[in-house]
């Protein structure tokens, strides 16, 4: 049904032309679900945009043929393309809330598409739009017709985007990272919805994703892309079991799933020893946090208690809004708790208010690695300046010795010294993550709080960073509090797990026990949503 | 109470301290003006005793806080003092002249929006192109022209050289009689009276000053439109619309522009302030009988009640206008009053 | 992108200038204006204040811009006025930049009551049509160049304060700000050394717009008889004086100072995008 032959796409950028896609071939049959898997910069999204010819400014198809049902899409004019877009081929995007017009009722947005393709008249547009909403299993669709995107949850918005894409009964659906940014439990419902709709309508699906596990679960066939080229293609089972290309092997290894150990993520990785656990280093008792929200007080934390022993690693697991980030910033003394007690090495931590903790001698003992490496580096500071910053205030290292220490730290986290003079936007995601880790280690802390340090990274980079963290923990005898939404990652790194939901602790215990015998239904749900190894 | 009503309520409450502040600043400014108002009010022939008497009747011998209380009390009952130069109550003077200024400013703003918004859209559809650069240079040149200079230049070209504009003196050529006062806007009043000759004459008088002011206000509107359009066009929802096959026109006008207009509406408040300020100069150049020229004359004559009345009227007008703009915004943007908006 | 080597600051400036022809023109014009402002009287063929018998002469080889009603050389007056007008605009913008930055940082970072009081105070200033407020301030304080600078600074301050407040506020909880606190920086240092520098790019656009606007205000005030007084050469006064002669056809009295004034404002206004790109580290390769 869709044939791509030797597609080449070029982008004009400030640093000269970049070949985003370099000659890929692809065939998609009617009713088939094909997954394109690749990490950022692999050209998978560009390929998808090329099919609909909606490349961003500066992007251009320079060669190749895109043939859909006998029509050559590369040669079609804009009018012809507009008849195909939405009518024959539709697309679903990541970040569903931003993908909808913020100031137009969702029902009207669906009507716009129906009217554009002359599938509805002024009279029956509304009823057809409501019908489209019902088809994506939106309850009370007639009332939802009048909703604006900001009034709906992320998962709900994604259903609306799907309803909009499928309103005109297209033959091919391109889903570009449709679940990225959604909570794990929502991810599954969205993917199941797409799968069922495709089956019912005999529709083909092109699923673009970075997640090999997800693609393996829902696709008939996979296509692995790297640097604008297809490196391997085949059935999911075959690819995961007997990949031939080195990159595919690396990707398969790096994808976390239930039962994997940390060193399994890297091909030929050696097991990292775990430090011996000592006395209780950090003790948290009944910590609560209440914010003054716009509509009354918001209870972000409702009495959390746990202990972390020296050399241990606690995993704080929860979805967005669970309060895990609030808790981590309270432990890091960036925020004050409303009530409760935090002790560090037996002494109370929260007798010094967060506002004055900067000058507390224990400031250098507790450091943090942040979620978004881009956001956590000052855009005006070079990597070296960022790493040096804590030393200037928290240690007595002289200015001349600081440089040597920066180089030492860079070597420790595996950051090439040549990159130290770069600004954050000149570094890749993995490099920025390493700068963030080096900065946190600069003042020899005891306790490191890791707030989703790998959430924004590609899986192959995540594998390296996780192993680096485990290695540093062993070598420097560090204690970790590791915050994550990903149970699979926690299972590999942490000895203790604490599952949070709406500011409450729903499960707390040794990681193995939590995974093998979850008591709360919520933990069971999370475990069910974990990618499973293929039988 | 819905979040929206709460937001509107909060916005109304916010205006109160601003109004109080405006009254205080006006009071302080006028007390600081050079010259003793008592001397002016007493007249040229007054001796020391009668000046002192005037001072007492005006309450100028009292301490400042007391003067302020009296001042506020007078304002509330509508006693804004008498103008020295015209001998009329200031409030009457201002309400008579205000429509002239408003008519000029509003026509200028409408003209300006009609040109600047399409220019901004045009520039945003091809950023970095020669079209974009030309638009940018054009509107920047407009805002770089001092209004008093543009006015003089237009008079020189269209009145002196080409002789197609009427003489730049006031709102109506002396051959015509003022239309019956209904709104005070000559265009509307003459249209209501069905007097199209007068309408045409008033429009002719309006064209040059309105153009002068419009040229000055093009830049902020065009700049904001361009920026907001660029942001809207690079949004994810535009890509969704493109992928759904919506037509170019629908995407540009229906989706992008509607989103882009929201920030433009907020800019209009700022532009209005700009225009009212520029109004003072434009009115002086075109001998326009609005409150701007009234204020300049009063300032030169140290006519302090008139200056105070003018500044106060302008500020109150502007507070009211911003309130209207914000409330309009609240009505057209469904997200207002909700978290994250 | 990350494979190319970092670019030097000078290289970056060069790139910004090459990339945008309008910016290149603006910077060249600025260099010209600064040249006139610094050298001023050394460049002019006549004494700007000296009257002569050659009154109301149209432009000629001897008097490029003609002469005025007192026989003074318009060209010399226009050039000499550059220094005064530039001083007013740079002085006013510098004052309001500093005041606005401090107010904006306090309101944006600490929020709460500070924010409420500062924001309402700024609203009050903005509630006046700003030119009118400047008129009032100069009239109240007295007709001097310094007072024109103060008045212009007062009406410019809210713009900076608002930009800085918004920029500081969005970065208040940014990761790098939290990291700076973890590194032992006090709140004051965090604001001054980590957050504020990141607000510079959008402020540069404001600086350029306000410099132009400051010149226009100063000239406008002189035009209605406030601020700078004759016979001091100043563009606004010259246009005001020239306006009386335009009806009788002596166009050059008002035209040349007006055009020069426009050129200066134009230059300032066009600088914005270039200045922003220069101080924005993200634009560097």
Describe this structure in words.
With 535 residues, chain A is of the alpha/beta class. Helix content of chain A is 34%, strand content 26%. Chain A has 18 helices and 20 strands. In chain A, the strands form four sheets. A six-stranded mixed sheet of chain A has the order 6-7-8-3-9-10, with helices on both faces. A six-stranded mixed sheet of chain A has the order 16-17-18-13-19-20, sandwiched between helices. Chain A is globular, with a radius of gyration of 25 Å. Chain B has two domains: 3-76, no CATH class; 93-300, MetI-like (MetI-like fold, Orthogonal Bundle). Chain B has 13 helices and no strands. Chain B has helices spanning 3-32, 37-42, 48-58, 64-76, 90-125, 130-144, 147-161, 186-193, 196-233, 236-243, 248-285, 291-300, 304-332. The longest helix of chain B has 38 residues, at 196-233. By secondary structure, chain C is mostly helical. Chain C has eleven helices and no strands. Chain C has helices at residues 9-19, 21-39, 74-110, 112-126, 130-141, 145-171, 175-182, 187-195, 200-223, 235-246, 252-279. In chain C, α3 runs antiparallel to α4, α6 (145-171) runs antiparallel to α9 (200-223) and α10 packs antiparallel against α11. The chains are: A alpha/beta (535), B mainly alpha (341), C mainly alpha (285). Chains in contact: A-B, A-C, B-C. Chains B and C meet through α1, α6, α7, α11 and α12 of B and α4, α5, α9, α10 and α11 of C.
Number of helices of chain C: 11
**Largest interface, C-beta within 8 A:** B-C, 51 and 48 residues
Spans of chain A of at least 5 consecutive residues whose pLDDT stays below 50 are none
How far apart lie the N and C ends of chain C?
Answer: 7 Å
Number of β-strand runs of chain C: 0
SSE string of chain C, helices as H and strands as E: HHHHHHHHHHH
- Determine the fraction of residues in helical runs of chain A and give it as a percent range: 25-40%
Work out the radius of gyration of chain A: 25 Å
How many DSSP E strands of chain A? 20
What coarse outline of chain A follows from CA principal-axis ratios? globular
Helix content of chain C: over 70%
For the biggest sheet of chain C, the summary is:
none
The major beta sheet of chain A can be summarized as: 6 strands, mixed
Computed structural class of chain C:
mainly alpha
Range of strand content of chain A: 25-35%
Mean pLDDT metric of chain C: 85
- Which structural class matches the secondary elements of chain A? alpha/beta
């Amino acid at each position: 049904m869709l044939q791509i032959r030797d597609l080449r796409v070029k982008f004009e950028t400030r640093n000269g032309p970049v070949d985003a896609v370099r000659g890929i071939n692809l065939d998609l049959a009617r009713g088939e679900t094909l997954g394109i898997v690749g990490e950022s910069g692999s050209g998978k999204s560009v390929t998808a945009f090329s099919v609909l010819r909606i490349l961003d400014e500066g992007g251009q198809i320079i060669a190749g043929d895109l043939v859909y049902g006998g029509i050559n899409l590369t040669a079609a004019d804009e009018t012809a393309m507009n008849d195909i877009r939405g009518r024959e081929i539709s697309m679903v995007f990541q970040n569903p809330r931003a993908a909808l017009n913020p100031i137009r009722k969702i029902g009207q947005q669906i009507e716009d598409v129906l009217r554009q393709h002359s599938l509805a008249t002024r009279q029956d547009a509304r009823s057809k739009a409501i019908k489209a909403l019902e088809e994506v299993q939106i309850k009370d669709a007639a009332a939802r017709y009048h909703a604006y995107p900001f009034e709906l949850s992320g998962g709900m918005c994604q259903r609306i985007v799907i309803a909009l894409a499928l309103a005109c009964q297209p033959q091919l659906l391109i889903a570009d990272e449709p679940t990225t940014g959604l909570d794990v439990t929502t991810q599954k419902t969205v993917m199941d919805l797409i799968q069922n709709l495709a089956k019912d309508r005999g529709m083909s699906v092109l699923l673009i994703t970075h997640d090999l596990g997800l693609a393996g679960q829902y696709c008939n066939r996979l296509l692995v892309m790297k640097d604008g080229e297809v490196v391997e293609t085949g059935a999911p089972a075959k690819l995961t079991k007997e990949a031939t290309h080195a990159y595919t092997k690396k990707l398969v290894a790096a994808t976390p799933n239930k039962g994997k150990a940390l060193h399994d993520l890297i091909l030929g990785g050696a097991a990292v020893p775990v430090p011996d656990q000592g006395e209780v280093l950090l003790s948290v008792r009944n910590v609560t946090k209440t914010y003054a929200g716009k509509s009354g007080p918001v209870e972000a934390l409702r009495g959390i208690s746990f202990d972390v022993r020296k050399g241990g690693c606690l995993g704080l697991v929860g979805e967005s809004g669970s309060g895990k980030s609030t808790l981590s910033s309270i432990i890091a003394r960036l925020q004050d708790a409303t009530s409760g007690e935090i002790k560090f090495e037996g002494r109370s931590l929260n007798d010094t208010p967060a506002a004055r903790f900067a000058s507390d001698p224990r400031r250098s003992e507790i450091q943090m690695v942040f979620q978004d490496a881009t956001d956590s580096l000052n855009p005006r500071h070079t990597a070296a300046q960022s790493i040096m910053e804590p030393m200037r205030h928290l240690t007595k290292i002289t200015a001349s010795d600081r440089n040597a220490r920066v180089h030492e730290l860079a070597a420790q986290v595996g950051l090439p010294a040549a990159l130290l003079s770069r600004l954050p936007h000149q570094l890749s995601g993995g490099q920025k993550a390493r700068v963030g880790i080096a900065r946190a280690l600069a003042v020899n802390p005891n306790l490191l709080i890791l707030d989703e340090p790998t959430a924004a990274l590609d899986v192959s980079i995540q594998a390296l960073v996780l192993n680096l963290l485990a290695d540093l923990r062993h070598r420097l005898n560090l204690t970790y509090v590791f915050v994550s939404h990903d149970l699979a990652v926690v299972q590999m790194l942490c000895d203790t797990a604490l599952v949070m939901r709406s500011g409450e602790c729903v499960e707390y215990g040794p990681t193995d026990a939590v995974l093998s015998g979850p008591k709360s239904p919520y933990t069971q749900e999370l475990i069910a949503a974990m990618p499973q190894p293929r039988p | 109470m819905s979040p929206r009503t709460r937001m509107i309520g909060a916005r109304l409450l916010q205006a109160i301290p601003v109004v109080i502040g405006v009254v205080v600043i006006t009071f302080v400014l006028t007390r600081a003006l050079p010259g003793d108002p008592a001397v002016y009010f007493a007249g040229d022939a007054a001796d020391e005793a009668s000046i002192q008497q005037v001072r007492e009747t005006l309450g100028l011998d009292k301490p400042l806080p007391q003067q302020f209380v009296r001042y506020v009390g007078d304002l509330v009952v509508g006693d804004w003092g008498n103008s020295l130069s015209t001998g009329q109550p200031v409030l009457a003077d201002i309400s008579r002249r205000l429509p002239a200024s408003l008519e000029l400013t509003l026509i200028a703003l409408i003209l300006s929006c009609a040109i600047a918004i399409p220019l901004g859209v045009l520039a945003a559809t091809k950023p970095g192109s020669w079209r974009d650069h030309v638009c940018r240079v054009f509107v920047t040149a407009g805002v770089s022209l001092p209004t008093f200079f543009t006015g003089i230049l237009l008079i020189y070209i269209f009145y002196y050289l080409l002789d197609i504009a009427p003489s730049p003196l006031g709102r109506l050529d002396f051959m015509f009689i003022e239309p019956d006062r209904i709104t005070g806007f000559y265009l509307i009043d003459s249209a209501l009276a069905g007097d199209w000759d007068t309408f045409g004459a008033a429009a002719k008088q309006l064209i040059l000053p309105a153009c002068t002011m419009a040229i000055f206000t093009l830049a902020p509107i065009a700049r904001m439109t361009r920026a907001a359009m660029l942001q809207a066009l690079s949004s994810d929802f535009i890509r969704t619309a493109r992928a759904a096959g919506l037509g170019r026109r629908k995407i540009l006008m229906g989706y992008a522009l509607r989103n882009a207009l929201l920030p433009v509406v907020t800019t209009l408040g700022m532009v209005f302030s700009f225009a009212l300020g520029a109004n003072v100069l434009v009115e002086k150049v075109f001998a326009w009988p609005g409150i701007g020229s009234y204020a300049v004359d009063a300032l030169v004559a140290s006519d302090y009640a008139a200056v105070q009345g003018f500044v106060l009227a302008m500020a109150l007008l502007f507070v009211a206008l911003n309130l209207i703009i914000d409330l309009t915004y609240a009505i057209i943007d469904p997200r207002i009053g909700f978290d994250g908006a | 992108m990350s494979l190319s080597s970092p670019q030097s600051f000078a290289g970056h400036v060069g790139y910004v200038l090459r990339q945008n022809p309008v910016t290149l023109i603006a910077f060249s014009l600025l260099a010209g204006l600064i040249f006139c402002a610094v050298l001023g009287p050394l460049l002019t063929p006549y004494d700007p204040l000296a009257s002569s018998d050659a009154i109301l002469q149209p432009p000629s080889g001897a008097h490029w811009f003609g002469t005025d009603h007192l026989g003074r050389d318009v060209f010399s007056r226009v050039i000499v006025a550059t220094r005064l007008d530039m001083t007013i605009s740079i002085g006013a913008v510098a004052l309001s930049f500093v005041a606005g930055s401090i107010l904006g940082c306090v309101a944006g970072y600490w929020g709460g009551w500070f924010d409420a009081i500062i924001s309402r105070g700024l609203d009050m200033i903005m509630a006046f049509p700003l030119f009118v407020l400047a008129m009032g301030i100069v009239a109240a304080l007295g007709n001097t160049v310094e007072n024109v600078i103060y008045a212009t600074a007062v009406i410019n301050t809210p713009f900076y304060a608002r930009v800085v407040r918004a920029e500081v506020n969005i970065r208040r909880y940014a990761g790098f700000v939290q990291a700076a606190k973890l590194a032992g920086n006090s709140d004051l240092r965090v604001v001054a050394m980590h957050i504020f520098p990141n607000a510079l790019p959008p402020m540069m656009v404001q600086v350029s717009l306000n410099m132009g606007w400051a010149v226009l205000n100063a000239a406008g005030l002189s035009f209605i008889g406030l601020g700078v007084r004759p016979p001091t050469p100043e563009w606004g006064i010259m246009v005001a004086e020239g306006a009386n002669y335009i009806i009788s056809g002596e166009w050059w009295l008002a035209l040349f100072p007006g055009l020069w004034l426009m050129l200066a404002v134009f230059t300032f206004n066009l600088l914005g995008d270039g200045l922003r790109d220069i101080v924005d580290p993200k634009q560097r390769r």
